[in-house]
Fold:
Amino acid sequence: MRKIVAAICLLFGCQNSDSVKTTNELGIPISIGQAKIALDKGINLSGWFTDFSDPSLYASRFSADDLKRIKSSGFSHIRLPIATSLLFQENSPSVLNQQNLLFIDNAVKKAIGAGLAVLIDPIHNYDGGFEKKLATTSGFDDKVVAYWQAIAKAFSTYATDKVFFEVYNEPHAASGTVSGLSKSWWWPVQLKFVQAIRKITRNHFIVVGAEGWNNRFDLMNEKPYAEENIVYNFHFYDPFLFTHQGAPDFRKKEVLAI
Structure:
């Protein structure tokens, strides 16, 4: 059985007072404090809508009772990783795959019905082809902008303390996928996606991260964005031998020696 333990840390930027309300033009504004409560403790449901998920289980992989148990166990939100292969259509990026969108939207409804917030993570791929194209192919970022605007339109109808948007899971093109690429490529590209979401909704919080698999060191080297309601996240896997014990692609002898 694969067991990977990771800490995903969220840092709230721009506003720093729990009493300060956001000044959004759309929807009901929430405070930083309300966002912190919603994102306090989360669990990653990575087996539902990823590249290796079983399509026959899109509707039933996690039941309403499962989500209620997650809530009763003390979690405040679920993170919902979504492979781009499920929703993104390169030839018409502003139009989401409607069949799969229904499954994902129902999953969001079930989670909210169980009292959980949802962190939507719609660019969560295990194949590096999408990111390589994003980093090297002119104009592909504009297609992803259109994709993100379609995602924002589909889910910004949910309350701002119930749905949050995560721009991208663990960008790492400069960390091995594309030879000779500087990590500086990512921060301005991510900003384009943030601004694309902001054209649809100014009230929903957006989670961003740095190149290098969302590591904290690269994040500390970046300048915060000027946009409000941004959450900065980093992924923490130390000690690596412990957090990746049981992973099928890991060095089993070293893990067993712990």
